[in-house]
Amino acid sequence: MPSGIVVTIQDEKSQIKNKAKAMAVLRSRLLDRERARLAEAESAMRRSMVGSGERSEKVRTYNFPRTADRSPNRARLAQPSRRHDGDLDKLIDALSTTYQAERLRSLNTEDSGA
Question: What percent of the chain lies above the pLDDT cut of 70?
Fold first, then answer.
């Protein structure tokens, strides 16, 4: 395969020996070129994974034990960290109760207005 690399060696009187040395030098240059290409590809991949370090890419931490649900008309739910672990039963029950109460209120206002 043509590579565009030219190697000339004229160390020996024998053309066969010069050709063998030139092939060895060519082989090592091609190997160096391939290693450089692979290193550049790996470096580009790592750069894309690391990012730029801008503010939008930084990791944020939240102090969950201090948070509380301060929404009006909803029961306060302790231990928000449990919600993040998938324990959503109390939250779903509170939301469902609030939704049902709002629906009943809207039905009562429709019935009394008609």
Answer: 72
Mean pLDDT, the chain, as a whole number?
80
Regions of the chain where pLDDT drops below 70: 51-53, 57-58, 62-85, 113-114
Question: Position 109: which residue type?
Answer: T
Overall pTM surpassing 0.85 (yes/no) = no
Helix-strand-coil split of the chain, %, nearest 5: 65, 0, 35
30/32 Cα distance (integer angstroms): 5
Give the HSE-up count for residue 98: Cα atoms under 13 Å, Cβ half-sphere.
12
How far is the C-alpha of 95 from the C-alpha of 75, rounded, in Å?
A: 9
